[in-house]
Prior knowledge:
By secondary structure, the chain is α/β, with parallel strands linked by helices. The chain is 28% helix and 26% strand. The chain has helices spanning 30-37, 100-104, 123-131, 151-158, 174-200; strands at residues 16-24, 43-48, 67-80, 83-89, 109-114, 136-141, 166-169. Strand 5, helix 3 (123-131) and strand 6 form a beta-alpha-beta unit. It is globular.
Amino acid sequence: MIFGRSERGKPPVEPVTLKILVAGGFGVGKTTLVAAVSEIRPLRTEELLTEAGRPVDDTSGVEGKHTTTVAMDFGRITLREDLVLYLFGTPGQERFWFMWDELSEGALGAVVLADTRRLEDCFAAVDYFERRSIPFVVGVNCFEGASRYPAGVVRQALDLDEGVPVLLCDARDRESVKDVLIGVVQHAMDHAADRRQAALG
């Protein structure tokens, strides 16, 4: 780079930055997903689970979980030279939901991460994004030992609109997570195009 310009004389590319939320129930893998794909060391706001929180933090099915996100996770991934995604993982417990409104401000779309062993835990996130018309995909985190279900079965169980993509993923695997994020961007673009079309009437 010479004086802010590349050596070939082309101006440096100013990337488009997009904000994507990662939501879902307690212990579903949101922090893991952000960490798997972030090109920077993710910012985490995790605290140890305590005895005081035991009555409100349902750890059934995730007994090995010892920490919980209390504000957000933050990561970044460059998909192309001109496209950067900022990832914001939301806290899963109901007592932290007041933060969702702030985190969702300006979001392009969202991933609702689901665990088929505790599918009801993601109902609140699905409802939240539907009510605010924020485009989202459902990423079914395929935990070891959990039953695998076709996307159509998950869609029916969550009572999703036909247009909402349901994608199977492994929140620990970078390529799997990238596929889900690309799915969010594509779905958000389609959603925006549909709204423009409807406005033109």
